[in-house]
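[Help] Beginner question about ligand-bound structures

Sorry if this is basic. My supervisor gave me a protein sequence and a SMILES string for zinc ion and asked me to "get the holo structure". I don't really know what that means in practice or what format the answer should be in. Inputs are pasted below exactly as I got them.
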Amino acid sequence: MTDDSVTAWELLEKQQALEKMAAEKYPWNPDECTRHMGVQRQLLYVCQTCQTASGKPNAICYSCSIRCHTDHDLVELFSKRAITCDCGTNQIKGDPCFLRKIGELEKSDNAFYGHNFNNQFCECDSEYNETEPGIMVQCLVGTQCQEDWFHERCILGLSIEEEKAARKALSKPVESSGVNLLDELESAHNVEHSEASEEPEATGAFTTDSESEDEDETLPGMPNAGEFDAFICWKCLSADDFSEIPGIRVDRVTWTATDSGKRNKTVQTSLFLRHGYEKAISELAKDSPAVLSLVKKHPFLVEPEQTYEPPQDDDANSSIFEAGERALQNLPREYANNGIKAYSMMRDKLTKFLAPFASEGKVVTQQDVATFFSSLN
Ligand SMILES: [Zn+2]
Ligand SMILES: [Zn+2]
Ligand SMILES: [Zn+2]
Ligand SMILES: [Zn+2]
Ligand SMILES: [Zn+2]
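Answer (accepted):
No worries, everyone starts somewhere. Holo just means with the ligand present. The predicted complex, written as structure tokens, is below.
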């Protein structure tokens, strides 16, 4: 086999893997921009290409991420409550929104964005790193943190080194064989990390570690993932009176040096709400004016909040392929906007073209592929 050839099987397998991945990641019909729906909890993306062009932050809805920013560099932010889609607004330099069919750029609804829109997360301002062990949790309230995501170590006030030591202690075998297994454990750990490919879920907590056995295991001092349903960060907790709200309170202990050489201890408390907290809090609100005013301010404390989802995609093939191509970042804009059906037909022709190669295990060369594409014109 020469370098510029692949077997038809390889091409078909790639195509199927791509379809599966796209169907899981983009199950909805990307036909409507959510901007006219106003503020609501929804999946959002940041378009880094448009951010670089305009020098301003932006939030992009699911549909616009697929239809208007097809060949752009996008970062998924999971769901946020208080932001509307910026496609076709003055936060973006370039084309008005294709889906809303507007003639010129409109004024953005968003007054502030928070650092997630600059690809920074948590109190430590770090980039999201899916190979890091542990879970990150999103703050339910967001009045102070803009619904930020937090590391376990930062909720506890630990340094990266302290976290490492705590995780080593967690993974230490109970029965000692007299041999130091920590190095082996460490390397096994790393192999698993490099194979981690699962998409984090768009819920309140996602695990960034692929270790299945200990998925539930968090750092000492933190509740395990199964023990809580929602998280309120120390900043949002201190901005309102949450004193009567039940849950698991976790202290973040940090030390700062003073001029006199002493160290000052600071304790900042976060709150983990248990499963069924909505019901418990609405019971409390009946008797407590403080809880009632809290609930009026944050209605999601007593009623489960819906995350907006576009309608399910019934014409799965076309948009699956469109999305799959987006993942490869090589779909021409005209295809994404106007020619989904045409593209889907081309895909079918390609499958037919490849079938005989596949059944005979024959090699498809670049020349074969070039001939096929020129036959389409
Ligand atoms: Zn939009
Ligand atoms: Zn863009
Ligand atoms: Zn758009
Ligand atoms: Zn952090
Ligand atoms: Zn918060």
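A couple of things worth pointing out: The pocket of zinc ion (ligand 1) is lined by residues 33-35, 61, 63-64, 85, 87 (CB under 6 Å). DSSP finds 13 helices and eleven strands in the chain. Feel free to follow up in the thread.
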